[in-house]
């Protein structure tokens, strides 16, 4: 058999929930490509990157199923088309804009094309990858989602592009999608998601001003909206009955009334991150939040204390008693 190169372990990117170090979605390329000549892909380069010898569908036939071609200054990958047994492919940090040579790789399970020159999903062979479960096309030049399909994709990472509008994200085309990352794009609204099976949605570092269309995210457990332009949380809704973690750090929320829609999450939300909003500087906001969501376990980095929870419940009882008194009068 051909000598294989070493390939790092293949696993999904960290889906950090902003509990520690921040993730830079617009990091630069690891190599100064301006000082390198662009290289055509050839058999020797491919052989260097091959690893993990596995049995194919035929009884005694074996083939390498992992291929690492990152940081090769590649502009085209035509030579790859005959390697039909590849299941794990890393093409990151190149200059690739055309994935059509991958059309024959119908066994692909994992594909990483970060930091390349892709501008569109149209005329790309994504519909051929019936078994693809993990796809990352971060830090390219994608401006829209037309042509993007993935019936088996469970994790989809599109961070660091220039996408302005969510389109085509329908359950029929993404029935198995559970994690979606769109950090660092140009979105202004959350409208366009019809993904009832989605569990985690990362929309940090966009230009989002409005929460819309969230009623179809019935199984969403994590919603990350850090560093956007939200002035209100209007748009949160009772259909979001599975949401446990909400991060709106670094937005423009200034008034207590802007938090009222949090009451729709009373049955599920456990963690709320709201620091770096104007409201934090002008209001003792933790009691206000706890009156709306007395079941919260953590606000920002601090756990909710028993004293805070007891006081919030006392306030709720007093408010109800006062309301009942006014009603009887």
Textual characterization of the structure:
Helix 3 crosses helix 4 (306-328). The protein is elongated. A 13-stranded mixed beta sheet has the order 1-2-3-4-5-6-8-10-11-12-13-14-15. It is 13% helix and 15% strand. The protein has 329 residues and is α/β, with parallel strands linked by helices. It is built from four helices and 15 strands. The protein has helices at 43-49, 278-282, 285-292, 306-328, and strands at residues 50-55, 62-68, 88-90, 110-112, 134-136, 155-157, 169-170, 179-181, 193-194, 200-202, 222-224, 245-247, 271-273, 298-299, 302-303. It has a single domain (89-95, 105-328), classed as Leucine-rich repeat, LRR (right-handed beta-alpha superhelix) (Alpha-Beta Horseshoe). The model is unreliable at 1-16 and 19-35 (pLDDT under 50). It is found in: Cytoplasm, Cytoskeleton, Flagellum axoneme. Its main location: cytoplasm. It comes from Poecilia reticulata. Keywords: Cell projection, Cilium, Coiled coil, Cytoplasm, Cytoskeleton, Flagellum, Leucine-rich repeat, Repeat. This is Leucine-rich repeat-containing protein 23.
